């Protein structure tokens, strides 16, 4: 939606030459969901039917060998003397066979769209062309454009040379978008490059005129530039890809004729579902807050549930006897732990005491274990 009800009109030299009122359709509600839906269905209506040949994969003479020969019952090529004979045929799993579910030309190619939906989408797309943020979000270069929507004097419709058209776009700051589209030209990815669709490029400005006095021939050769008569506005041009915000250059008469095409004397304008879509402002308004219940000061706090297996107090609430038994067992374990330490200390003291006499005992043992010479005393052991 434009910020002011009056729109400046620029001359071919880029100077302000007057003003005109903003059409009512430019204030229509923005509905990207409807635009996307209508664009998706409209874009299907120029498709050509295609299918594979009905004879593809079935040109060979083949028949099944039947059962009892320990082979699959798929049709097999007849004859002999060649490796082709006996090979499976016709099936989608066979080499040289047909595809699974061959495509047919009687598919549902085209889509019917409600007329009111199409008008709603076009009106919403027109309103989006007056929002600079949406135009820039589409990727258009409008840094040097003095105003959105950009309206040029009717003399632009009499332009007959591409060089003059280029000068007009440069004067109003729209040439950057054309150069951006020209620089984006590249070879298409995929098989379309071999099917007469070799190059792709981005969209540039859309020139909307009321009378063709040569403007079609002048602008049509510029890269990315498209032209449209205001009486034949097309959603596929106003919202390419289903994305609103196409950069449009209007002639003065084309912009003024929108009031006769839309409004009381023409097509009905869509009404917004909400007069004020600012939900925060609505919720915080005095009218809404005065009937709302006051916020609760205190919320009930719930205690955390405790596990009776781990917590004795929780167990005591459920089963006091089991809690008493657990407490007694805990105390007994503590007593055993203390007595165990005393027993160990006593044992360690005994071992330490025994070690004092171990050396003397070992010496005595070694002494008594020695064997002397029995003939040493001359008694010969007698």
Keywords:
two-stranded antiparallel sheet; alpha/beta; single chain; 10 strands; 382 residues
Describe this protein's structure:
A hairpin with a 5-residue loop joins strand 1 and strand 2. The mean pLDDT is 91. By secondary structure, the protein is of the alpha/beta class. The strands form three sheets. A six-stranded mixed beta sheet has the order 2-1-5-10-8-9. It has 14 helices and ten strands. Helix 1 packs across helix 2 (115-128) and helix 12 (312-318) packs antiparallel against helix 13. Helix content is 35%, strand content 9%. The protein is extended, with a radius of gyration of 48 Å.
Estimate what percentage of residues fall within beta strands.
5-15%
Helix proportion of residues, in percent? 25-40%
What's the helix count? 14
**Average pLDDT reading:** 91
The coarse silhouette is extended
What is the H-and-E element order?
Answer: EEHEEHHEHHEEEHEHEHHHHHHH
- Main sheet strand line-up: 2-1-5-10-8-9
The number of strands is 10
- Give Rg in angstroms: 48 Å
By helix and strand content, what is the structural category?
Answer: alpha/beta
Cα-to-Cα separation, first versus last residue? 140 Å
Oligomer state equals single chain
Unreliable runs, pLDDT <50, ≥5 residues?
A: none
Largest pleated sheet: 6 strands, mixed
Topology of helices and strands:
Elements: E1 6-10, E2 16-21, H1 32-42, E3 62-63, E4 76-77, H2 115-128, H3 132-137, E5 150-152, H4 162-171, H5 175-183, E6 186-187, E7 199-200, E8 206-209, H6 215-219, E9 226-229, H7 235-238, E10 248-251, H8 252-256, H9 258-261, H10 279-283, H11 286-289, H12 312-318, H13 320-356, H14 358-369
Parallel strand pairs: 1-5, 5-10, 8-9, 8-10
Antiparallel strand pairs: 1-2, 3-4, 6-7
Helix pairs in contact: 1-2, 12-13
């Amino acid at each position: 939606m434009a910020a002011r009800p009056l729109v400046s009109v620029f001359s071919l030299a880029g100077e302000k030459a007057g003003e005109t009122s903003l059409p009512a359709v430019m204030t229509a509600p923005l509905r990207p969901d409807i635009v996307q839906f209508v664009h998706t269905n409209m874009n299907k209506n120029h498709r050509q039917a295609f299918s594979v040949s009905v004879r593809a994969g079935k040109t060979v003479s083949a028949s099944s060998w039947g059962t009892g020969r320990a082979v699959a019952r798929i049709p097999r090529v007849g004859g002999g003397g060649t490796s082709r004979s006996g090979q499976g045929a016709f099936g989608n799993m066979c080499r040289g066979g047909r595809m699974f579910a061959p495509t047919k030309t009687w598919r549902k190619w085209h889509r019917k769209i409600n007329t009111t939906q199409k008008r709603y989408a076009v009106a919403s797309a027109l309103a989006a062309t007056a929002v600079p943020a949406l135009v820039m979000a589409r990727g258009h270069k409008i840094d040097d454009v003095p105003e959105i929507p950009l309206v040029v004097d009717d003399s632009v419709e009499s332009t007959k040379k591409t060089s003059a058209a280029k000068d007009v776009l440069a004067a109003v700051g729209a040439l950057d978008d054309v150069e951006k589209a020209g620089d984006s030209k590249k070879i298409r990815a995929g098989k379309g490059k071999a099917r007469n669709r070799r190059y792709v490029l981005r969209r540039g400005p859309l020139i909307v005129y009321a009378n063709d006095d040569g403007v079609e021939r002048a602008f049509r050769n510029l890269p990315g530039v498209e032209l449209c008569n205001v009486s034949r506005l097309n959603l596929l041009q106003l919202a390419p890809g289903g994305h609103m915000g196409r950069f449009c250059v209007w002639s003065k008469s084309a912009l003024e004729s929108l009031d006769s095409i839309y409004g009381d004397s023409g097509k009905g304008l869509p009404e917004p579902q909400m007069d004020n879509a600012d939900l925060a402002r609505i919720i915080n308004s005095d009218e809404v807050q005065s009937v709302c219940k006051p916020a609760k000061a205190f919320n009930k706090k719930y205690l955390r549930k405790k596990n009776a297996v781990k917590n004795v107090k929780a167990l005591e609430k459920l089963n006091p006897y089991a809690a008493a038994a657990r407490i007694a067992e805990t105390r007994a374990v503590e007593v055993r732990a203390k007595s165990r330490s005393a027993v160990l200390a006593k044992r360690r003291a005994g071992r330490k005491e025994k070690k004092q006499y171990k050396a003397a005992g070992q010496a005595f043992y070694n002494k008594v274990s020695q064997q002397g010479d029995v003939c040493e005393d001359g008694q010969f052991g007698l």
